[in-house]
């Protein structure tokens, strides 16, 4: 009977799993497939990205799904110097010291991994791909991360976190930040 059921289900236009989930029919009644659960809606968060003068230069939009976090970075024209820029999640959601953004502390790194997407002993939880700003200083990127928005080890923990954009590109290997240099953009995540 087990081998026949999938064939009967296909003949009836049902997926085999749906056929198995049907309740037995009573005489004179039609069967209904069991309710299929819908995936949970991703949690969303949006915040402004500010430069070292405290001016808004763009937005950070985060969507947290079941298996990954998606971060969309949008920088307006004139927001960044043209070229590649390192980008990381930092451990504290504080961008109040606009001159250097040092209150955001080091990278999110609960398991003490080494820095670098290309490092065999890494990456740490804050590591992200580089961001490229065009000649007009604008940038658009969408990247994913295994670091969740909420829950244990999430970006929105007790002291929050920050997205930091650096002056230089990250080489994804050298310590501690891949040569990414000064912090020139910051977005609070709380």
List the helices and strands and how they pair.
Elements: H1 4-11, H2 16-20, E1 43-50, E2 56-64, E3 69-75, E4 83-85, E5 87-90, E6 131-133, E7 139-145, E8 161-166, E9 183-189
Antiparallel strand pairs: 1-2, 2-3, 3-7, 4-6, 5-8, 8-9
Report on this structure.
The chain is mostly beta strands. The protein folds into 2 domains: 1-34, no CATH class; 43-189, Superoxide dismutase, copper/zinc binding domain (Immunoglobulin-like), CATH 2.60.40. The chain has helices at 4-11, 16-20; strands at 43-50, 56-64, 69-75, 83-85, 87-90, 131-133, 139-145, 161-166, 183-189. Strands 1-2-3-7 form a 4-stranded antiparallel sheet, with no helix packed on it. The longest helix is centred in the N-terminal third of the chain and has 8 residues, at 4-11. It is globular, with a radius of gyration of 23 Å. The model is unreliable at 1-23 (pLDDT under 50). Residues 21-52, 105-157 are annotated as: Disordered.
Strand content: 25-35%
Helices and strands: which structural class?
mainly beta
**CATH fold-level topology of the largest domain:** Immunoglobulin-like
Portion in helices: under 10%
DSSP strand tally: 9
Instruction: Compute the separation of the termini in Å.
Output: 55 Å
Assigned CATH architecture of the largest domain: Sandwich
Mean of residue pLDDT?
85
Tally of separate domains: 2
Specify the CATH homologous superfamily of the largest domain: Superoxide dismutase, copper/zinc binding domain
- Radius of gyration using CA atoms only: 23 Å
What coarse outline follows from CA principal-axis ratios? Answer: globular
**CATH C-level label of the largest domain:** Mainly Beta
Order of helices and strands: HHEEEEEEEEE
Characterize the main sheet.
4 strands, antiparallel
Annotation field: number of helices: 2
- Strands of the widest sheet, in order across it, are 1-2-3-7
Q: How would you describe the oligomerization state of the chains in this entry?
A: single chain
Low-confidence runs of at least 5 consecutive residues: 1-23
Domain Superoxide dismutase copper/zinc binding: 58-189
GO molecular function, one term: superoxide dismutase activity
Organism: Methylobacterium hispanicum
Biased composition (Basic and acidic residues): 105-114
């Amino acid at each position: 009977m087990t081998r026949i059921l999938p064939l009967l289900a296909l003949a009836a236009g049902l997926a085999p799993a749906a056929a198995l989930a049907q309740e037995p029919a009573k005489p004179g009644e039609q069967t209904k497939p069991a309710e299929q659960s819908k995936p949970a809606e991703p949690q969303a968060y949006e915040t402004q990205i500010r430069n070292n003068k405290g001016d808004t230069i763009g937005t950070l939009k985060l969507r947290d799904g079941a298996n990954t976090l998606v971060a969309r970075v949008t920088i307006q024209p004139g927001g960044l110097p043209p070229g590649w820029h390192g980008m990381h999640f930092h451990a504290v959601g504080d961008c109040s010291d606009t001159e250097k953004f040092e209150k955001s502390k080091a990278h999110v790194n609960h398991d003490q991994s080494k820095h670098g997407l290309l490092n065999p002993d890494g990456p740490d939880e804050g590591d992200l791909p580089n961001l490229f700003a065009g000649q007009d200083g604008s940038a658009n990127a969408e990247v994913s991360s295994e670091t969740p928005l909420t829950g244990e080890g999430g970006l929105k923990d007790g002291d929050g976190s920050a997205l930091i954009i650096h002056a230089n590109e990250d080489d994804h290997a050298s310590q501690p930040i891949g040569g990414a240099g000064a912090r020139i953009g910051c977005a609070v995540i709380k």
